[in-house]
């Protein structure tokens, strides 16, 4: 028996095709799994999604893609710039990548179908320590390692059926890119926004590089290596981001409008900027009991609690502490232990012979308790880079101060100077500090009974007269430290001359290229220092012997502007042209919440700077600080993998240690006990990683895309479960069967479905029961198509609910299956609409279906637009009858089928109409026309849900 290789999937359609050679030959062949004619009558063919992917990827490549932005971009209003955060080329894409890039491609394809000229570029965040570490470990150049990884990951990306514009591909480690990163540095330097200064820095002893504050975690460890960070004083390069801090803070309000940016991201940025309005207060110091004409300055946002100060604490880097440590070995030994302490440590070192005086002690009406001199501690919980590096300890009204006080003065009472109300006793608050604003207590002297906010303002004014306080503004944000003592990054384009000082490298000498380095040797400090050919040069100003700067830039500098380079990636002379700059900002930016502070804050700063230059002419001197790089930010949730855990040891089990004969009841191979199941962040140590390439090769890219979008809302954590993809594959199979059957039906388009239904409605008055039944199926399809268009459009626009797009399309698929007796014109148009709505999610599958329904048309992405809701038939296609639950005094007494009530009816008219319709039914007449439930005796009626429920109120 020969093998049948037919494009037909539906059983009935396939049999018709076999019996009709001309029809069989006229329909182009789909890709299906092979089967024999003998089995044709028993089952339908299984669609080969993987082959369909391959086929259409080849066609797209031949035609240069499906989403085609113009080479010469039009005005911003005609474009939509979609950008997922570009990947670091580690060599392997993970499911998190698959999720974010699927979302980006869906948005891009949707906007393209809506008629926008879409830009969806892809590139590589290629500089960074991992490549350099790999070079040291493998004795291979970072460039070679990185380039190889990029090639592998590009292959993986292309398997995802994405519509990337590879003509715009860029890599931050390519000289054509980092030449302009260096130009950006020089532009900032010219404006005084890039400067060099001696500073105490965070030193990673493992990676041997400086870290920005943001790259040190809450435990004082490096974000990359995990090593305990050390403090060193080095000359470093900084970007003056602080000059833009007000704009960075103020524009968060604009980004909050219409939920353009997630609230979590805005909150984190606001907290990191850390604007605080308060007072700088001086605490005079006594040494050996004598006034030494010195004071410790403390910044506080709560001057109202000044009466409650019971100690003063200093950071280890405070100048007073540094000076005292020179002559106090015990103090120095304590300071040396601080890096190894946990972040929540309450240890402290009491400075001997040093006391502080509360500035209110000089006020006559201050209670005696406040006039007592205060102990001074060195405490790790005090931050040296915020405020003045000193805090006033108020155990009664601050949680950290309370914990520290109890650690060192367990038996000493805590002074409460505020209470929730004037009548409330402070005794109840002795165990926990009262941290809110309230009313001043008797411990506040003449301020007793005043509200704490007003009292705080008066206290500052009082101390200002004595020159012991002043109102000030403080920020947590510090200038951006960009120096890195590593190799694999953008070289800083500065030459150090003994005569001229730091001199910018002239534009014509850019880029300053990275030299070749012998990776068989390890290097301490900057590897660039080991290359005499790189280091030794001449001064551009005086031609004297000089040295190049041997630091490279933080890789966040690259990602702070790469989105702008995509607009003009081949420009050799400028980062991008002013004309290309008009396509900015990015319309939809997609990436993880973990970049809320670092990358996004730096990108906002750099874009505001660029907006002040001629590169972005759409901004003026008055508006450049309001410029934002990303109009809308979408943050997708993480992907968690299924882990199997030994119930006895709690150990994560390897794949070969779990018996999955019954996937719902996994067993530990060794003990035969049931393994515990949990979903955890994917990692090698938990044995729960998934290779998306393997998954795609098994199920196809389209099914994988639909599955990853369907399983959870975009912003939620996705618990990856391979077994659940069967729901998606069954749906695609079922839909393909329907499309094939519809395509095989004789059809000549003479009228649209709308005109067909409008004309048919006019003859319903004389229609037979069979014709009315067919009308019902056709009207049901039309109604559900319009409902789906409205719902799916809203979900695509909102992005975060893409999962409901898949569920809505599944529902519409069922509607088509339930109404197979509808006319070909209605079914075919509904099928085309369904396919065009699913095209952004399953592009290859949609192309295949489109080719069946419209064999002479080009790609679906070129021959149709995204459908719009058609309300012209709303009244005509209303259901002829619908179930109506009849309630009597709030309890359902029966369900009858009646027509939907006219929309204009209300009140008594609606009641009378519904009574009439209900009583005209057989069940209604039997149950509600007399006796206990006589509807005609109802005092009133309340109809809800469009007449699907009505409650009659009877006596």
Automatic annotation (TrEMBL):
Top enzyme class: ligase
Enzyme Commission number, as recorded: 6.1.1.4
Chief subcellular location: mitochondrion
Methionyl/Valyl/Leucyl/Isoleucyl-tRNA synthetase anticodon-binding domain boundaries: 780-900
Residue ranges occupied by any Leucyl-tRNA synthetase editing domain in the UniProt entry: 270-463
UniProt xrefs under PROSITE patterns: AA_TRNA_LIGASE_I
Gene3D superfamilies, alphabetized: HUPs (3.40.50.620), Isoleucyl-tRNA Synthetase, Domain 1 (1.10.730.10)
A Pfam family assignment: tRNA-synt_1_2
Presence of the UniProt keyword Cell cycle in the record: no
Catalytic activity: tRNA(Leu) + L-leucine + ATP = L-leucyl-tRNA(Leu) + AMP + diphosphate
Listed InterPro entries: aa-tRNA-synth_I_CS, aa-tRNA-synth_Ia, Leu-tRNA-ligase, Leu_tRNA-synth_edit, M/V/L/I-tRNA-synth_anticd-bd, Methionyl/Leucyl_tRNA_Synth, Rossmann-like_a/b/a_fold, tRNAsynth_Ia_anticodon-bd
Cell compartment(s), UniProt: Mitochondrion matrix
Entry's Gene Ontology BP terms: leucyl-tRNA aminoacylation; mitochondrial translation
GO cellular component terms given for this protein: mitochondrial matrix
Gene Ontology MF annotations: aminoacyl-tRNA deacylase activity; ATP binding; leucine-tRNA ligase activity
Residues spanning the membrane: none
Residues of the Aminoacyl-tRNA synthetase class Ia domain: 477-640
Domain Methionyl/Leucyl tRNA synthetase span(s) in chain numbering: 84-218
UniProt keyword ATP-binding, yes or no: yes
Keywords: Aminoacyl-tRNA synthetase, ATP-binding, Ligase, Nucleotide-binding, Protein biosynthesis
Family of this protein: Belongs to the class-I aminoacyl-tRNA synthetase family.
Name of the featured protein: leucine--tRNA ligase
